[in-house]
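Section 5.1 Outputs to date
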Amino acid sequence: MNEKLKVIIENNQSVMKIPTGVRMLIRRCCKAVLALEGFTDSAEISVTIVDDATIHELNLKHRGIDRSTDVLSFPLGENGKYDTNMDTGAKMLGDIVISIEHAYEQAEKYGHSLQREIGFLTVHSLLHLLGYDHEDGGLEAVHMREKEEAVLTRVGLKRNGSYYDDGE
């Protein structure tokens, strides 16, 4: 288990209510991912909750994609090497940006709770910060999905059916 985990969570939107317990859920998901991955160093992760307009702007600026999305990951490391916070010695894994509007929409679309959707987006994005990728599909995407489900089950958010996203 990791020595110390600091998850900095900011709500930078005012369009939708963030339910009670979501901050604790995000922290539990981060802790569970790091435990599953055997990450034992102290770590820092930043999670920012935004609206669709903000994530659209970030997606265009950083990825050249002119539309909103559900979550963005901004890793601060590569190949297991991370920037270190000189004051604490913690590995700075990176930033996660979640669109709360997308989270509400996708929870409804897939027929599960908002908590499961936010948990999924957090786990998915943190795996990206740790170097996992699914962009090319194939075995790597399957491996990443298996890890996501293992973590979500571990934190009590087991999938209640199957869902498929065609990317639109």
